[in-house]
Fold this sequence. Notes:
Layout: H1 2-27, H2 38-50, H3 53-85, H4 87-101, H5 105-116, H6 120-144, H7 148-156, H8 161-198, H9 204-213, H10 217-245, H11 260-278
Amino acid sequence: MKNVRNVAVTLAIFAGSLGAWEAIVRAFAIPIFILPPPSQVALALYRGFASGLYLDHLGYTLLETLLGFIVGSLLGFFLGTAVAMNRWVEFFLYPYIVMFQSLPKVALAPLIVVWFGLGLTSKVINAALVAFFPLLVNTMVGLKSADEDRVSLMRSLAASDGQIFWMLRLPNALPFVMAGLDVAMIFALIGAIVAEFVGAQRGLGMLIQSMNFNMDVSGQFSILLILSFVGLVLNRGIMLIRKRVMFWDPSEKPAIETSPEEAVPAAGRAVATPAKERI
Length: 279
Protein backbone atom coordinates (compact mmCIF):
# COMPACT_ATOMS: atom_id res chain seq x y z
CA MET A 1 0.00 0.00 0.00
CA LYS A 2 2.86 2.34 0.85
CA ASN A 3 4.57 1.64 -2.50
CA VAL A 4 1.34 2.39 -4.40
CA ARG A 5 1.02 5.69 -2.55
CA ASN A 6 4.62 6.61 -3.35
CA VAL A 7 4.13 5.83 -7.05
CA ALA A 8 0.93 7.89 -7.10
CA VAL A 9 2.68 10.87 -5.49
CA THR A 10 5.57 10.59 -7.96
CA LEU A 11 3.21 10.51 -10.94
CA ALA A 12 1.24 13.46 -9.55
CA ILE A 13 4.42 15.54 -9.17
CA PHE A 14 5.49 14.60 -12.70
CA ALA A 15 2.10 15.53 -14.17
CA GLY A 16 2.09 18.80 -12.24
CA SER A 17 5.55 19.67 -13.52
CA LEU A 18 4.49 19.02 -17.12
CA GLY A 19 1.36 21.12 -16.63
CA ALA A 20 3.38 24.01 -15.19
CA TRP A 21 5.87 23.75 -18.07
CA GLU A 22 3.06 23.85 -20.65
CA ALA A 23 1.36 26.78 -18.93
CA ILE A 24 4.56 28.84 -18.64
CA VAL A 25 5.48 28.32 -22.30
CA ARG A 26 2.02 29.31 -23.51
CA ALA A 27 1.59 32.20 -21.05
CA PHE A 28 4.89 33.88 -21.98
CA ALA A 29 4.63 32.89 -25.67
CA ILE A 30 8.10 31.35 -25.67
CA PRO A 31 9.17 30.42 -29.22
CA ILE A 32 9.12 26.70 -29.95
CA PHE A 33 12.75 26.74 -31.17
CA ILE A 34 13.83 27.96 -27.70
CA LEU A 35 11.65 25.91 -25.36
CA PRO A 36 8.93 23.69 -26.83
CA PRO A 37 5.88 22.80 -24.71
CA PRO A 38 5.46 19.20 -23.52
CA SER A 39 2.63 18.69 -26.02
CA GLN A 40 5.02 19.32 -28.92
CA VAL A 41 7.65 17.04 -27.36
CA ALA A 42 5.04 14.28 -27.00
CA LEU A 43 4.01 14.77 -30.63
CA ALA A 44 7.62 14.50 -31.79
CA LEU A 45 8.05 11.39 -29.65
CA TYR A 46 4.97 9.79 -31.19
CA ARG A 47 6.03 10.59 -34.73
CA GLY A 48 9.52 9.23 -34.15
CA PHE A 49 8.30 5.90 -32.82
CA ALA A 50 5.41 5.63 -35.28
CA SER A 51 7.78 6.03 -38.22
CA GLY A 52 10.26 3.55 -36.75
CA LEU A 53 13.06 6.13 -36.86
CA TYR A 54 13.67 6.20 -33.11
CA LEU A 55 13.57 2.43 -32.72
CA ASP A 56 16.32 1.87 -35.27
CA HIS A 57 18.66 4.46 -33.78
CA LEU A 58 17.77 3.46 -30.21
CA GLY A 59 18.71 -0.16 -30.85
CA TYR A 60 22.05 0.89 -32.29
CA THR A 61 22.85 3.15 -29.33
CA LEU A 62 21.87 0.40 -26.89
CA LEU A 63 24.17 -2.04 -28.67
CA GLU A 64 27.07 0.41 -28.44
CA THR A 65 26.35 1.05 -24.77
CA LEU A 66 26.09 -2.60 -23.74
CA LEU A 67 29.19 -3.68 -25.69
CA GLY A 68 31.18 -0.74 -24.32
CA PHE A 69 29.94 -1.52 -20.81
CA ILE A 70 30.97 -5.17 -21.08
CA VAL A 71 34.41 -4.41 -22.52
CA GLY A 72 35.09 -1.57 -20.08
CA SER A 73 33.86 -3.56 -17.07
CA LEU A 74 35.98 -6.59 -17.89
CA LEU A 75 39.01 -4.41 -18.50
CA GLY A 76 38.43 -2.45 -15.29
CA PHE A 77 37.85 -5.55 -13.17
CA PHE A 78 40.88 -7.52 -14.35
CA LEU A 79 43.18 -4.51 -14.36
CA GLY A 80 41.92 -3.44 -10.94
CA THR A 81 42.52 -6.95 -9.61
CA ALA A 82 46.06 -6.95 -11.00
CA VAL A 83 46.83 -3.54 -9.49
CA ALA A 84 45.33 -4.46 -6.10
CA MET A 85 47.03 -7.86 -5.82
CA ASN A 86 50.47 -6.99 -7.18
CA ARG A 87 52.54 -4.11 -5.81
CA TRP A 88 54.81 -4.04 -8.86
CA VAL A 89 51.86 -3.65 -11.21
CA GLU A 90 50.47 -0.88 -9.01
CA PHE A 91 53.82 0.91 -8.86
CA PHE A 92 54.57 0.83 -12.59
CA LEU A 93 51.11 0.79 -14.21
CA TYR A 94 48.68 2.73 -12.02
CA PRO A 95 50.26 6.20 -12.59
CA TYR A 96 49.84 5.75 -16.35
CA ILE A 97 46.22 4.71 -15.85
CA VAL A 98 45.52 7.85 -13.83
CA MET A 99 47.27 10.03 -16.41
CA PHE A 100 45.22 8.48 -19.21
CA GLN A 101 41.98 8.87 -17.26
CA SER A 102 42.68 12.56 -16.66
CA LEU A 103 42.50 13.17 -20.41
CA PRO A 104 39.05 14.48 -21.41
CA LYS A 105 37.21 11.82 -23.39
CA VAL A 106 35.53 14.53 -25.46
CA ALA A 107 38.99 15.42 -26.77
CA LEU A 108 39.86 11.75 -27.40
CA ALA A 109 36.61 10.97 -29.22
CA PRO A 110 37.64 12.66 -32.53
CA LEU A 111 40.91 10.74 -32.55
CA ILE A 112 39.11 7.46 -31.86
CA VAL A 113 36.69 8.15 -34.72
CA VAL A 114 39.63 8.94 -37.06
CA TRP A 115 41.47 5.75 -36.04
CA PHE A 116 38.55 3.33 -36.03
CA GLY A 117 36.05 4.94 -38.42
CA LEU A 118 32.43 6.01 -38.14
CA GLY A 119 31.09 2.53 -37.44
CA LEU A 120 30.35 0.53 -34.31
CA THR A 121 33.97 -0.04 -33.24
CA SER A 122 34.81 3.58 -32.42
CA LYS A 123 31.63 3.99 -30.33
CA VAL A 124 32.28 0.81 -28.34
CA ILE A 125 35.89 1.83 -27.65
CA ASN A 126 34.90 5.29 -26.48
CA ALA A 127 32.13 3.90 -24.25
CA ALA A 128 34.54 1.31 -22.80
CA LEU A 129 37.19 3.96 -22.06
CA VAL A 130 34.68 6.08 -20.17
CA ALA A 131 33.21 3.11 -18.27
CA PHE A 132 36.31 1.21 -17.17
CA PHE A 133 37.83 3.64 -14.64
CA PRO A 134 34.99 3.63 -12.05
CA LEU A 135 35.08 -0.15 -11.90
CA LEU A 136 38.88 -0.16 -11.80
CA VAL A 137 38.97 2.10 -8.73
CA ASN A 138 36.11 0.31 -6.95
CA THR A 139 37.68 -3.09 -7.57
CA MET A 140 41.00 -1.91 -6.16
CA VAL A 141 39.38 -0.41 -3.06
CA GLY A 142 37.18 -3.46 -2.50
CA LEU A 143 39.99 -5.99 -2.76
CA LYS A 144 42.24 -3.96 -0.49
CA SER A 145 39.55 -3.46 2.14
CA ALA A 146 39.57 -7.09 3.27
CA ASP A 147 40.17 -7.48 7.01
CA GLU A 148 43.86 -8.27 7.50
CA ASP A 149 43.09 -10.28 10.63
CA ARG A 150 40.93 -12.62 8.56
CA VAL A 151 43.62 -12.82 5.90
CA SER A 152 46.16 -13.76 8.56
CA LEU A 153 43.76 -16.34 9.99
CA MET A 154 43.32 -17.98 6.59
CA ARG A 155 47.08 -17.99 6.04
CA SER A 156 47.55 -19.67 9.43
CA LEU A 157 45.17 -22.39 8.18
CA ALA A 158 47.45 -22.95 5.15
CA ALA A 159 45.09 -21.25 2.67
CA SER A 160 46.62 -20.39 -0.68
CA ASP A 161 46.49 -16.94 -2.28
CA GLY A 162 43.82 -18.20 -4.68
CA GLN A 163 41.67 -19.48 -1.84
CA ILE A 164 42.04 -16.19 0.04
CA PHE A 165 41.03 -14.32 -3.10
CA TRP A 166 37.93 -16.39 -3.92
CA MET A 167 36.75 -16.98 -0.36
CA LEU A 168 37.56 -13.65 1.30
CA ARG A 169 38.77 -10.81 -0.88
CA LEU A 170 36.30 -11.17 -3.77
CA PRO A 171 33.14 -11.55 -1.61
CA ASN A 172 34.30 -8.58 0.44
CA ALA A 173 34.83 -6.54 -2.75
CA LEU A 174 31.47 -7.38 -4.34
CA PRO A 175 29.60 -4.34 -2.89
CA PHE A 176 32.31 -2.07 -4.29
CA VAL A 177 32.28 -3.85 -7.65
CA MET A 178 28.51 -3.62 -7.99
CA ALA A 179 28.62 0.09 -7.12
CA GLY A 180 31.26 0.52 -9.82
CA LEU A 181 29.08 -1.33 -12.33
CA ASP A 182 26.19 0.99 -11.52
CA VAL A 183 28.30 4.04 -12.39
CA ALA A 184 30.00 2.35 -15.35
CA MET A 185 26.67 1.57 -17.06
CA ILE A 186 25.61 5.23 -17.10
CA PHE A 187 29.11 6.32 -18.16
CA ALA A 188 29.02 3.85 -21.05
CA LEU A 189 25.79 5.42 -22.31
CA ILE A 190 27.35 8.90 -22.06
CA GLY A 191 30.50 7.71 -23.86
CA ALA A 192 28.48 6.22 -26.71
CA ILE A 193 26.45 9.43 -27.16
CA VAL A 194 29.59 11.60 -27.12
CA ALA A 195 31.18 9.44 -29.80
CA GLU A 196 28.01 9.71 -31.90
CA PHE A 197 28.15 13.49 -31.58
CA VAL A 198 31.64 13.52 -33.09
CA GLY A 199 30.82 11.32 -36.05
CA ALA A 200 28.43 8.46 -36.68
CA GLN A 201 26.19 6.93 -39.29
CA ARG A 202 23.49 5.82 -36.85
CA GLY A 203 22.48 6.34 -33.23
CA LEU A 204 20.52 8.76 -31.07
CA GLY A 205 23.50 11.08 -30.71
CA MET A 206 23.76 11.44 -34.48
CA LEU A 207 20.01 12.04 -34.61
CA ILE A 208 20.31 14.85 -32.04
CA GLN A 209 23.02 16.48 -34.14
CA SER A 210 20.88 16.21 -37.26
CA MET A 211 17.89 17.76 -35.48
CA ASN A 212 20.12 20.53 -34.13
CA PHE A 213 21.06 21.53 -37.65
CA ASN A 214 17.36 21.59 -38.58
CA MET A 215 16.37 23.55 -35.44
CA ASP A 216 14.04 20.71 -34.42
CA VAL A 217 14.15 21.43 -30.68
CA SER A 218 11.04 19.34 -29.95
CA GLY A 219 12.71 16.33 -31.50
CA GLN A 220 15.86 16.93 -29.46
CA PHE A 221 13.82 17.08 -26.25
CA SER A 222 12.07 13.84 -27.19
CA ILE A 223 15.41 12.06 -27.68
CA LEU A 224 16.70 13.44 -24.38
CA LEU A 225 13.58 11.98 -22.77
CA ILE A 226 14.33 8.61 -24.36
CA LEU A 227 17.92 8.72 -23.13
CA SER A 228 16.75 9.52 -19.60
CA PHE A 229 14.38 6.56 -19.66
CA VAL A 230 17.09 4.28 -21.07
CA GLY A 231 19.48 5.34 -18.30
CA LEU A 232 16.82 4.59 -15.70
CA VAL A 233 16.11 1.15 -17.15
CA LEU A 234 19.81 0.26 -17.31
CA ASN A 235 20.27 1.42 -13.73
CA ARG A 236 17.34 -0.73 -12.56
CA GLY A 237 18.83 -3.69 -14.41
CA ILE A 238 22.11 -3.35 -12.52
CA MET A 239 20.15 -3.07 -9.26
CA LEU A 240 18.31 -6.33 -10.01
CA ILE A 241 21.60 -8.07 -10.78
CA ARG A 242 23.02 -6.70 -7.54
CA LYS A 243 20.13 -8.16 -5.54
CA ARG A 244 20.59 -11.53 -7.23
CA VAL A 245 24.35 -11.65 -6.76
CA MET A 246 24.46 -10.17 -3.26
CA PHE A 247 21.47 -11.91 -1.75
CA TRP A 248 23.50 -12.50 1.40
CA ASP A 249 24.24 -8.81 1.99
CA PRO A 250 22.05 -7.23 4.74
CA SER A 251 21.71 -3.99 2.76
CA GLU A 252 19.92 -5.86 -0.05
CA LYS A 253 17.27 -7.41 2.20
CA PRO A 254 13.94 -5.55 2.31
CA ALA A 255 13.10 -3.85 5.57
CA ILE A 256 10.43 -5.61 7.64
CA GLU A 257 7.50 -3.29 8.13
CA THR A 258 5.76 -3.40 11.48
CA SER A 259 2.02 -2.97 11.53
CA PRO A 260 0.43 -0.50 14.01
CA GLU A 261 -1.21 -3.43 15.85
CA GLU A 262 2.18 -5.06 16.37
CA ALA A 263 3.85 -1.79 17.30
CA VAL A 264 1.48 -1.04 20.24
CA PRO A 265 2.16 -4.26 22.19
CA ALA A 266 5.87 -3.87 21.48
CA ALA A 267 5.83 -0.34 22.89
CA GLY A 268 3.88 -1.59 25.90
CA ARG A 269 6.47 -4.26 26.59
CA ALA A 270 9.25 -1.68 26.26
CA VAL A 271 7.58 0.52 28.87
CA ALA A 272 6.72 -2.37 31.18
CA THR A 273 10.25 -3.76 31.30
CA PRO A 274 11.85 -0.74 33.06
CA ALA A 275 8.90 -0.66 35.49
CA LYS A 276 9.54 -4.28 36.52
CA GLU A 277 13.23 -3.52 36.95
CA ARG A 278 12.42 -0.67 39.34
CA ILE A 279 10.18 -2.96 41.39
